[in-house]
Amino acid sequence: MAAQYFDQIVNLTEEEAKKIIAKAEAAGVTPEIYLKVRGLAADQLPDPAAFFALFARIDTFVKGYRACLQSLSRFETGAANQIPPLGAQFAQILQEWDELYGPRP
Fold first, then answer.
1. How is residue 63 annotated by DSSP?
2. 33 half-sphere exposure, CB direction, 13 A CA radius
3. Nearest-5° Cα angle at 24, 36 to 103
């Protein structure tokens, strides 16, 4: 199925416009593109502003996890002390993922 494009006039309050602009900037697109993507894909794809922020936290976790594994493999003193904070970070990511993208009715 070919992508469908649409043009629509959207009347936003100043507060709504600020939120859309902030979300668009977080996703790295213009507000117009952000609104079009949300209009076309809202039922299939997550909000890019929230999703990209979550992916940045996942990336930070992965880097920390790799560093922990390397420290453990070198038998560095205190390497095991990195495990509890990583576990807490991972639990937070899972909780946030579930809140944002968990099962939908």
1. H
2. 10
3. 75
28: closest CA among 52, 12, 54? 52
- pLDDT digits over 67-89, tens only? 999 999 999 999 999 999 999 99
* Backbone φ and ψ of 63, nearest 5°: -65, -40
* DSSP, res 74: T
Does the reported pTM lie above 0.85?
no
Q: How many CB atoms lie within 10 A of CB 66?
A: 10
Q: What residue segments make up the domains of the chain, in order of their start? A: 12-45, 48-101
Q: What is the 3-state secondary structure (H, E, C) of 25-45?
A: HHHCCCHHHHHHHHHHHCCCC
Query: Which residue's structure tokens are 């807490």?
Result: 88
Number of H helices, E strands in the chain: 4, 0
Q: What are phi and psi of 59, to 5 degrees?
A: -60, -40
Q: Is 49 exposed, middle or buried (0-12, 13-18, 19+ CB in 10 A)?
A: buried
